[in-house]
Predict the 3D structure of the following.
Amino acid sequence: MITNSKEFLNEQYGDSARLDIRIALHDLYSTSNLDWHEWVFDNIKFEEQSSIIEFGCGSGALWAKNKNKIKSGWDIILTDMSEGMLERALESIGEIQNINYQATDIQSTDFADSQFDIAIANHMLYHVPNINTALFEIKRIVKPNGTFYTSTNGLSHLKEIYEFVAEFDSSIPFSKPLNSSYFGLENGEQQLRNFFKDVSLLRFESNLKVTNVRDLADYMFTIGTDLKEALIKNGSFNEFIDFLEGKKNNQGYLHITKDTGIFVCSN
């Protein structure tokens, strides 16, 4: 599944509905005591005075979930390609004087050279048509002593959900998105080192224990395939839900692998 086309991005991220469902699954069933967005935030080295930009801020979860940690000395710009996402971010974060919102393409910005102390791109570089162009732009606008943080997934991330569908009915169109092939934990460092001298990877230690299979199914239906339509057309929707129920282990949950982390880049 191609994940960096305009058609895909408009379908998936025109508003926050699908993203909200995905975040909810991880919030409900993560095996980690730490929330992902809190973990990311706590691994960013903010100063008392910092100029900060996030690309692809989505629904603003990184800031909404860490609202009490935002300092008055920070100058924050949250960007996204989608006006709908920016509206959702403002709604979830609320009015904060030192946070501004801007519709921006990471591949071409109007920001000044060396403008930001910190740049952030969480789970979005794999959606960019030309990652090298984006990284060149980030390198340009981050100060020489600044830091770029970018998170992504590994190839094994959520692998079970694709295995489930293939086992249930291999004729149903449900292929794994190519996100990690474009920019993932396995190949991200190599791409980043073309622009940044120091690159390190922090892995988030967590999996999912899903007890309500309808929540998992709803997540699967957001991925942008014809899965739900195919199940309804085949008259096998309820059968698929029962199939997922049958895949639970003796402890009454489905184990879903998570493979995600954040690259920390500087010069």
Q: What stands out?
A: The CA atoms of residues 50 and 249 lie 48 Å apart.
